[in-house]
Design goal:
This protein is mainly α. It is 77% helix and 0% strand. The longest helix is centred in the middle third of the chain and has 38 residues.
């Protein structure tokens, strides 16, 4: 956030006489949120993978415990489905994170690129 507050566009917004609250929320905070969104996406992905350990240790019913029981019983189709489901969830979470980049940073746009 401190790095964003020192950028030229924030200084220009202050020079235009905008309210400090508006400058912080509309200009500085949007660009400062990019690393926060990235960390949130990675943390969510780690939360999904950590469910296996928590459910196994505390004997909670859930998809993680079901996967561990399937591994122990050598139920390969269920293990393959769990791995594919986890991979799809990781891809979807990363896609959502990438799409939110375009919302927070106006310099990032999706579409046809000119060369």
């Amino acid at each position: 956030m401190l790095e964003s507050l020192g950028q030229n566009y924030v200084l220009y917004a202050r020079a235009r006489g905008l309210l400090e609250r508006l400058v912080i929320v509309q200009y500085a905070l949007k660009n400062a949120l990019l690393p926060v969104v990235t960390v949130f996406g990675l943390s969510f992905a780690n939360l999904l993978s950590g469910a296996v350990i928590v459910e196994s240790v505390f004997a909670l019913p859930g998809l993680g415990r079901f996967a561990v029981q399937s591994i122990l019983n050598r139920d390969y189709p269920v293990v393959q489905c769990y791995v594919c489901l986890t991979a799809v969830l990781f891809v979807v979470v990363n896609l959502i994170v990438d799409l939110t980049y375009g919302y927070f940073d106006p310099r990032i746009r999706f579409g046809k690129q000119e060369v």
